[in-house]
């Protein structure tokens, strides 16, 4: 099964490694006798399929998810190995798509305009006047 990340990146099945083990959770006797838990491993660092620039971006963005340059995704939610394999492929594709997204532009810091400063000061003065009126009316009532 090839992994289609997007229109420009398709990872062939020989680049992916699968590991299977017995899963925990629902499944009855099937869990005890079949290896339904799936781990999908993709060696990102040594992959010849990805260009140097793309690989650099992925390694930087996914550095917290990588182990020795490999991206490892596990799936054990479903009861059958086939369903868990499909789920692991989907998870891997989502992670790689997220890593390929270009970083958001950083906000350029600006100073407040003169008008904005004046509005802020006017609202503070108005609030202060309201409080002052309340104090004066409290003295009259006592």
How are the SSEs ordered, and which strands pair?
Layout: E1 3-6, E2 9-11, E3 16-21, H1 29-33, E4 37-43, H2 52-61, E5 66-67, E6 70-75, H3 81-100, H4 114-141
Antiparallel strand pairs: 1-2, 3-4, 4-6, 5-6
Short description:
This protein has helices at residues 29-33, 52-61, 81-100, 114-141, and strands spanning 3-6, 9-11, 16-21, 37-43, 66-67, 70-75. By secondary structure, the chain is α+β, with helices and mostly antiparallel strands.
Outline the structure in words.
This protein has 142 residues and is of the alpha+beta class. It has two domains: 3-100, Double Stranded RNA Binding Domain (2-Layer Sandwich); 113-142. Helix content is 44%, strand content 20%. It is built from four helices and six strands, in the order βββαβαββαα. It has helices spanning 29-33, 52-61, 81-100, 114-141, and strands at 3-6, 9-11, 16-21, 37-43, 66-67, 70-75. The longest helix has 28 residues, at 114-141. It is elongated.
User: With helices defined by DSSP (H or I, 4 residues minimum), what is the helix count?
Assistant: 4
Query: What gross morphology would you assign?
Result: elongated
Total strand segments = 6
Write down the CATH class of the largest domain.
Answer: Alpha Beta
Order of helices and strands: EEEHEHEEHH
- Radius of gyration, in angstroms, nearest whole number: 29 Å
* CATH architectural label of the largest domain: 2-Layer Sandwich
Largest sheet: 4 strands, antiparallel
